Amino acid sequence: MKTSIATVSVPGNLREKLEAIAAAGFDGVEIFEQDFIADAGSPRDVGRMIRDHGLEITLFQPFRDFEGLPGRLRTKAFDRAERKFDLMQEMGTDLVLFCSSVHPQSLGGVDRAAEDFHDLGARAAARGIRVGYEALAWGKHVNDHRDAWEIVRRANHPDIGIILDSFHTLGRKLDPETIRSIPGDKIFFVQLADAPAIEMDLLYWSRHFRNMPGEGDLDVTAFTRAVLAAGYAGPLSLEIFNDQFRSGSARGVAKDGYRALASLMDDVKRQEPECLADHAALPERIEPQGVAFVEFTSRGGEAEALRRLLKTLSFSQTGRHVSKALSLWQQGDIRILINEEQTGLAASMYNARGTGIYDIGLTVPSASATVDRAKGLGAELFSQSFSHGQIDIPAIRGLSGSVLHFLDGSQALSDVWSAEFEVQATDGGGVGLTKIDHIAQTMSYGEMLSWSLFYKTLFDMRKDAMVDVTDPDGLVRSQALTSGEDTLRITLNGTESHRTFAGSFLADSFGAPVQHIAFACNDIFAAARALNEQGFAQLPLPENYFADVASRFDLSAEQLAEMKRFNILYDEDESGAFFQLYSKPFAGGMFFELVERRSGYHGFGGPNAPFRIAAQKRLSRGKGIPKA
């Protein structure tokens, strides 16, 4: 099935839009009239330019306020239609979208509208043009696809059909199953859009908050299944109005659109295989099994400071790479690599951003299937030259130029630690840190939808509700993504202000992708006591925090005293309890976290985030955060 996207969905001028759409892999494009009018080229020039990019024009849109007009207004509407038909013929497209009228003088009545479209169909047929009628969710008389279909049915003209848009159906909470009764050959075109569940005016919601399928809360999959079950065989097209997208990257938005459509079609094929019988299936969504490693790039004194910090957390250096300046540090199932290479990606990342995490390794059932799915979703594969003894681990690009490597239980990949590293004696048994609980990635707010889509389409992960986190100098929005078995947790933290703690880290590191890593432990109090003896520098919290905790939760005086002594934060929900302990910031704003989850707590201590941020900013104010 062909893929398409409306030019209004992508930022930039028309030429930039077309380059991005073609590069993303779409088959066709809807021309939004405003984009055409703003371009200096003639209709013929624009049509040629589109075809030169390897695209076809799937639709010209929109034509507004046509049906139900009285007297001279009706005559004028037909004259406008003839002029648009002229334009379309020059451009080289044969399908136009007419949306239901919102004209203040339009008259209701199904038969009146049907008569208008029957007469229009005769004019369109003479020009080799087809007209699709779409019910706007806020249309004056027609705002339901069932009414639009009844008008098309009564118009009874082969060149008049219906156009369906998932937002107009799902946004009004209409049952998409009613679409299955429409003959497939009378569905001329299908537009898709998702949206967050927000109660607001339909027009404003549509114009500012649409997003890609999978980024919102509408059941676009059910809508698409119904459309295809009806026998529709035309393009699936995206029509997205979104303020974030308008200020984003044309290539990034187009790539997200392609990823969303590819994932949507794969989901539909799995649920109703007969709908997309000829569509090649992707490997199934991957169930991640955990974090295999995180890799820092660092150098010189900064690398030495990082090693000292890891030692205070009771990590031991357990290996040295056979041919690279790369050391392996471990505790429990946690592996941290410190890369001090002078060439390659690690060196480039260090030169651009200083000490930071640039590579994350994930354990998956099949590394090859993971990469195959990622490639099918438009991800960028990663590879670089190998040194002696190095194993080729499948990888793709992640946030901000970082890398995601994938390890599985195959013979070649399971031997990577013994094959690539010389074993070194350990210094001790650690303090009970067991695994990486979650990884927190920081980005601009405008990137959050994109990376949420990236993870949700590649992996089998659920998305929590977005949370607003208060920083003394702004707002940070946080989105948590968690795998089905809680083996992988990622929080996406978006900021619009460089004055927030997250924003200052992002600005100072030139877009480093990871700001903090949380380590799980079974007994945070035992770990805190042991770390205290080793000189671990905890993030200090004010007395006011613990007084508030004492008033809100039923905790013993002894436990509160221990929490205050070791600066341990606390939260609970209906499922269980959560304890947190933070390091002081390092490397320009990074930090580590220790967490203990009790009795099924699934959150991330969100209520504590404002107090943690205030403490971090108080600590760094006036003297700056050390580079390492």
What helical percentage do the residues reach? 25-40%
Structural class: alpha/beta
Point out poorly predicted stretches.
none
The main sheet comes to: 9 strands, mixed
* Level-2 CATH architecture of the largest domain: Alpha-Beta Barrel
Based on CA atoms alone, the radius of gyration comes out at 28 Å
CATH homologous superfamily designation of the largest domain: Divalent-metal-dependent TIM barrel enzymes
Assign the CATH topology of the largest domain. Answer: TIM Barrel
Number of domains: 3
Measure the end-to-end span.
52 Å
**Overall pLDDT level:** 95
What is the β-strand count?
A: 25
Tertiary shape? elongated
Beta-strand residue fraction: 15-25%
CATH class of the largest domain: Alpha Beta
Count helical runs.
22
Q: What report would you give on this structure?
A:
With 628 residues, the protein is of the alpha/beta class. It folds into 3 domains: 3-276, Alpha-Beta Barrel (TIM Barrel); 290-423, 2,3-Dihydroxybiphenyl 1,2-Dioxygenase, domain 1; 433-620, 2,3-Dihydroxybiphenyl 1,2-Dioxygenase, domain 1, CATH 3.10.180.10. Strand 11 and strand 12 (334-339) form a beta hairpin. Helix 3 packs across helix 4 (71-91) and helix 11 (250-271) packs parallel to helix 17. It is elongated and about 90 Å long. The two termini are 52 Å apart. The relative contact order is 0.08. The model has no long low-confidence stretch (mean pLDDT 95).
